[in-house]
Design brief:
single chain; mainly beta; Immunoglobulin-like; 2 domains; nine-stranded mixed beta sheet; six-stranded mixed beta sheet; 27 strands
Length: 277
């Protein structure tokens, strides 16, 4: 028998007879035909919410019954007994095998495929991607800033979430949009990323509180606000109290409140400048 295939498998015996008698039959001999691996069904892409469960399935055949291992991102996947379960084929014909992961965490996200082998052959399925979705969080709030009029300011909001969160910025109760002086960058990838708010050529009216609002399909969160204080380039002051009456020998303190950038203050008495003594 040449070029054996699996249909040749079976029990064989010979039967003999001649003119003197018969027939006489030999004992049966079992012919087992081993064959390599075939993968009929590859695992399919999945998306799940953190804390849920997922099952990947391959359908395989091979004789002797193959051994199945699982890969994650191209590397041998370590099975955690508490959260995970795998099944192995116990027959040689087409049969499903599976990997189940419970209590999903975000680091479970990645590409999974099954590797199937017996002593004749080894095959690997095409990979299937698992997306693990989770609610957005803010890991860095905007900081309080003090800037001079005419300067630029940058506030950052550190966010994480899957699907990629949408970020909007508000000043007090007003939603900010791109403009001549305002630039907003938004996250474009999953993981710990930043959204920044940049305002150039600051004016006194930019003073206020700023916050970022973050949302995806699972939830929405709002940052702790950061305040922006603007130091005006103009000088503003409050006159000291108009009149004082004191007794000779007493001390007196006059107060002049001033706002501005590095003001130069000079006191005058009866129209003449005074120097400290």
């Amino acid at each position: 028998m040449a070029n054996l295939n699996r249909r040749d498998q079976g029990r064989y015996r010979c039967q003999v007879n001649n003119v003197a008698g018969g027939p006489a039959a030999s004992q049966e001999a079992q012919l087992t035909v081993n064959y390599g691996i075939k993968i009929f069904l590859n695992p399919q892409p999945k998306s799940r919410i953190e804390g849920g469960s997922v099952t990947f399935t391959c359908e395989v055949e091979g004789k002797p019954p193959p051994e199945v291992t699982w890969l994650k991102d191209g590397n041998l996947f370590t099975i955690e007994a508490i959260r995970m379960k795998v099944t192995q084929p116990t027959v040689h014909h087409r049969t499903p095998v599976s990997l189940t992961i419970n209590e999903l965490i975000r680091t479970d996200e990645g590409s999974y495929n099954c590797r199937v082998n017996n002593f004749l052959d080894e095959r690997t399925s095409t990979p299937a991607f698992l997306a693990v979705y989770y609610s957005p969080v803010i890991f860095q709030n905007p900081l309080n800033l003090t800037k001079r009029e005419g300067d630029s300011m940058v506030m950052s909001c550190g966010v994480d979430g899957n699907p990629v969160p949408e970020v909007t910025w508000k000043k007090d109760v007003v939603t900010l949009v791109h403009g001549d002086r305002i630039n907003i960058t938004k996250p474009s990838s999953v993981g710990r990323v930043y959204s920044t708010l940049t305002i150039s050529n600051l004016v006194v009216g930019d003073k206020g509180t700023y916050k970022c609002m973050v949302n995806n399909t699972l939830n929405a969160v709002v940052s702790i606000p950061g305040s922006l204080t603007i130091i005006s380039l103009d000088l503003w002051f409050v006159n000291p109290e108009t009149n004082f009456t004191v007794t000779a020998g007493q001390n007196v303190t006059l107060v002049c409140e001033v706002w501005g950038v590095s003001p130069d203050i000079t006191w005058y008495r009866d129209g003449k400048s005074m120097e400290a003594t």
